[in-house]
Amino acid sequence: MTATSYAPLALFLTMPSTAEPRPATVSLPCDKLLPALLQARALLDEAQGSLICLTAAGITGAQGKASEHPGMIWLMDSRQALKLKQHPHARLYLHTEPTSAAEIDSIPLAAAGKAAGKMLEYHIPAHQGFAALRQLCHSLAARDLPPAPLAGGRTGANVSDHTDDYADVYTHNCADKPAFDMPPDDATGSSICFSGQYWFCEPGDRRQVQLRLHGQSIEDEIPGQTVHTLTLTQGSALLPPRPIARYWLEYSAESAAELATQLHRDTGERTALNTWHRHNTLLPQGTGCRAVVVADTMAALEAELDGLIRHIETRPTVWLQTPGGSCYCPANQGCRPGELAFIYPGVGTAWAGMYQGLHLYFPELFEVNKSLPLAEMLQAEMLQADTLQSTGPQANRTSQNQSLPLAQQAVAGVGQSWLLSQILCREFGLAPDMALGYSMGEISMWASLGIWQSPESLIRPTLESALFSHELSGPLRAVQALWQPPSYDAGASGTQPTPDWGCYLLRASYDSVQQQIETLFGKTCRVYVPVRHFDSCILAGDTRQVQAVIDALGCTAIPSPLVTAMHTPAAWLLHQSMRAFYQLNTQSPRLLRHCLFFSASQPQAINPALSSLHLAPQDLSQYIADSIADTLCQPLNLPMLINRAIHQGARLFVEVGADRQLTSLLANQQLSWQPVKTIACNSKGAMPIRSLRKCIAALRTLGVNIRAPLAVHARTLSAPGEGVRSHISTSGAAPQETQYVSSR
């Protein structure tokens, strides 16, 4: 029997604010989803202005506070929703005739729209149809890949919609298993869950999913297994952002003793803590002591308060951040205007799960950038391969990347730095005073802070260029050219053996390593120190010579998983190619932020926004291309780069990128001026939102002026005599609230 399609329905997760809704009332059992939808469609055909509410107990009218019930879906004719300028969370296309499993693939999907992306597919027992429909509506509105069923359901691929490497259909065969068996929300009892995997979609396409209901016929008289199909596509509305913390307390006082008194007072007022409303005030500026307490439960909140009190009473002059993210900053150790620097890590730090779940907390950020190739920017297909079995943001937190090639690592690293820069600057209003990058982190720096017009245009060339796949890594053709005699034929390089190249991190000073190289090899040297750290360095080159240096020093040597010839003499053979590769169009200087940019290869920092430089866009483009090429070819001196920024006033370094490589390098160093603090906003193996929350809490404690944190319960306590200053926060929404926003 051929499937029949009806006009689509607009689905809402809360009652839309129509001018004159004319509700209809129908009562049907919850295990007959398809008959209920058919009757709803018939009612809407009779009166297009009708607004129908479908609940787990049936379809009821729109009366009173019904829209707050956690088990409701509101239905409206899609044409009427468009006329009333209502933003649905999803659109539903009905295929009403029972169809055998063998015939199901013949159902036309064109009704879902010409711009629909690849189809995800779920097989669900009919009696679980309503729960599955609500789950998929939430997933579509959150742009979150629907969670895989528990209890052994087969998990498909996390589809990167722009690629053909995955099948067009993402299938869960779970007809005999409890689909969407998810833990209920503490506040509502709802079974809605999110996978934490962003639902990537090719620019211009729409996300869509097919729900196949088994074992139900319209008249309940057709024997045997039957299949009914519902097709859902994304609407124009988004779910509201999740709060980054449930409790967010901010304190300041003139002395550590006064601050401890405030914390003691709150520790004994659990009733008051439980009855807070959402309030927020910027932490007062000044030279006094500050503290920020963050927690997700009342028990955790009390433990954080107790831990801070013990620290303040015993070590009042020492900075502290607890594992939970709460912070204490002693007097005169905060950050003043002009001292904030963003530092971008180099290649090789990208890891699976580094951005997992962030779209649930910053949905508008992802939506306004939907025209960008986000899946390619973050190398989602490669990095998410290890997290496909996850059913929530915590799953597979410790999965390691699979030693991605240099090109993929470079693209993913820049993409993650761009994403975190957008979150820090757009969502929290941070404005760095300075920016610098470690090795290829310079590319992240220029790409992330709005200097290049279209940094995403570098993605495909980076992945396809021989510079990164053959010259500086892989067969290392640049090294072959450097080590071969003058008669070397570059055109025949494919027949040359790959150099026996080793790369190690040595726990030894640069001076001692360089002295040992000169002593052992002199002019026959084929071993180099491409990167110099504070008390360590990178050693690369001919494996035999590298091992000889390590043996002579007797130091710890850690093999590098990423083999590259950057920052060695071989890279200079590609200098002109790199200059051409990184020459991109830049924004007009009047559109650029005021920020001092440091390049490891240039003696002076540059502020492109200052008109006194009189740099035309083409001159700025050439300057950036030259500085990147020079940086990637010459040895990198990290201490010199850091001290140049410190000399210009940097006192707080925020590492903006995957993992915390630079934060670890700088944490225990005695730099030119003290105190200097480093903060990471991403840590391998940790939930990205928790790492970001710790970063924001630290910044607030240090006195950095940022926008209100997205907390459910937040309060600021000032020094005695100032009182509590607060206002109702509009950022974020409590988990129990049912607020929804339209995408732009």
List keywords for this structure.
single chain, 744 residues, alpha/beta, Malonyl-Coenzyme A Acyl Carrier Protein, domain 2, 4 domains, ten-stranded mixed sheet, five-stranded mixed sheet, 23 helices, globular
Gross geometry: globular
Q: Give the helix level as a range of percent.
A: 25-40%
Which CATH architecture of the largest domain? 3-Layer(aba) Sandwich
Number of helices: 23
End-to-end Cα distance, whole Å, is 41 Å
List the helices and strands and how they pair.
Blueprint: E1 9-12, E2 22-23, H1 33-46, E3 50-55, E4 58-60, E5 72-77, H2 78-83, E6 90-99, E7 116-125, H3 129-142, E8 170-173, E9 206-214, E10 227-234, E11 237-238, E12 245-253, H4 256-267, H5 270-274, E13 279-280, E14 289-295, H6 298-314, E15 320-321, E16 327-329, E17 340-344, H7 358-361, H8 363-368, H9 374-377, H10 380-383, H11 406-427, E18 434-437, H12 441-448, H13 459-464, H14 466-471, H15 477-483, E19 501-506, H16 510-520, E20 527-532, E21 537-542, H17 543-553, E22 557-559, H18 569-572, H19 575-581, E23 596-598, H20 617-633, E24 636-637, H21 638-647, E25 652-655, H22 661-666, E26 677-680, H23 688-701, E27 711-717, E28 727-728, E29 741-742
Parallel strand pairs: 2-3, 7-8, 7-9, 12-27, 17-18, 17-25, 18-23, 20-24, 25-26
Antiparallel strand pairs: 1-5, 1-6, 3-4, 3-5, 6-10, 9-10, 11-29, 12-14, 13-28, 14-16, 15-16, 19-21, 19-22, 20-21
Helix pairs in contact: 4-6, 11-12, 16-17, 19-20
Overall description:
- By secondary structure, the chain is an alpha/beta fold.
- It has 4 domains: 230 residues, no CATH class; 116 residues; 244 residues, Malonyl-Coenzyme A Acyl Carrier Protein, domain 2, CATH 3.40.366; 101 residues, Malonyl-CoA ACP transacylase, ACP-binding (Alpha-Beta Plaits, 2-Layer Sandwich), CATH 3.30.70.250.
- 29% of the residues lie in helices and 19% in strands.
- The strands form 6 sheets. Strands 1, 2, 3, 4, 5, 6, 7, 8, 9 and 10 form a 10-stranded mixed β-sheet that branches.
- Helix 22 links the parallel strand 25 and strand 26.
- Helix 11 packs parallel to helix 12, helix 16 packs across helix 17 and helix 19 crosses helix 20.
- The two termini are 41 Å apart.
- 49% of the residues are buried.
- The C terminus is likely disordered.
